[in-house]
DNA sequence: ACGTCAAGTGTATGTCATACACTGCATGTA
DNA sequence: TACATGCAGTGTATGACATACACTTGACGT
């Protein structure tokens, strides 16, 4: 294997696999990635610069390049470091729908703990070990649905993409306070939208489609992925039925 | 209206609305945006810098700031400039499903003509005039489905997000030649994935879930949004049925 | 003729990734 | 013990970038 990995991937699949025995002094890949993740957790992706990573570790900027080929590689490693699959997902689940919901709940939590993940300039299909682990768990849930493997893969891709979009939107709307920004958006829309130009949108706004009831709990005010997920899962259920029948 | 627009939005809703009479010499908002879009079309988002925009127009970098508050504003304007809604979508469509498919086909074309759109660091809900116009057309298609306005909005958001993810993936996989990179990905996966760590994924790979038949037409090899869309639309259909029943 | 203002310029600053040449140390070999 | 080798970390330099700020210039209204 690995004769010709795309640039930056070799680190993921080779060097990080070794559990690096006991912690030695000095720089190391995992230390770099750790520091970078801390920076991103605290200040978002913009806070991650080679200089700041090095500073936090007490080394010079250029020392990082002994361990890493480029910043892009650091970002890939950050993604993989953060995307570990909790053991919970190894337990089999009889009902595929419940299984996928569990999978989404877990990933949703991860995406909110490290919301910068949704802003990574990494667009391709899953490729890091932990990304593939997530994919694997989702495929496992679909094992006995009777779908073709290709359809299973399509379903997993669909759901993973949806979750990522939803998480991005969710963190954008309200990093912490939630609700409030949704209300702000609603007000903004109400002000901007002209009936003649956007009749259908105007109708939706006037019907309160973008409002939240003022007495909603915080849970209800927070952007929720379940509406979209339920639609998708209904669609998957239809596909499964169709395969069976 | 517009007493307190978020930063950068005032330009979209005010200054650009005026059709600026006849073309005068000198810089102008639309000229800047035009140049920026050309740069992005040719070289991707990375090719867009204030310096290069100005250079292309024969002005100095700083002259742009007479017309624009920040680069972020340029990006917003680029998005809006490119996201015009074709008149085709104004024609009513009796069947909501066909209507949404037409909507997606149209938007998909736009996203591929300007693939940098999928990489814009703009995550929020639709907010520019043309984004809202797209939203409006999609809501119009759903008018007589019996869904609540809130559900309609949710469906539109779901589909728009899906299309954006799919377009990003599609352009990432194969900007032009397509197919080839999918094959490369498939091969890569086959090499990397270990049965013990990723049993379900291994099964999918071995079943050819990530391959394309060697005799597939180019159309078949190109990443296709229709699988995911069909699932989503099936889910929406279920929701509509449920509302009706 | 004069004041005002808008458009465009020029220069400077700070941040960034990263190339490249260097140093000092530890380790293995003759 | 002497020496070579190579790795880890350093320092300096470059070029791209966004943008602050002070400036010029020319048109236009009074």
From TrEMBL, chains A, B:
Domain of life assignment: Bacteria
Transmembrane parts of this sequence: none
PROSITE patterns: HTH_TETR_2 (PS50977)
Keywords, in A-Z order: DNA-binding, Transcription, Transcription regulation
InterPro entries to which the protein is assigned, alphabetical: Homeodomain-like_sf, HTH-type_TetR-like_transc_reg, HTH_TetR, Repressor_TetR_C, Tet_transcr_reg_TetR-rel_C_sf
Domain HTH tetR-type per the UniProt entry, residue ranges: 26-86
Ranges annotated as DNA-binding: 49-68
PANTHER family tied to this protein: HTH-TYPE TRANSCRIPTIONAL REGULATOR RUTR, TRANSCRIPTIONAL REGULATORY PROTEIN
Record's protein name: TetR family transcriptional regulator
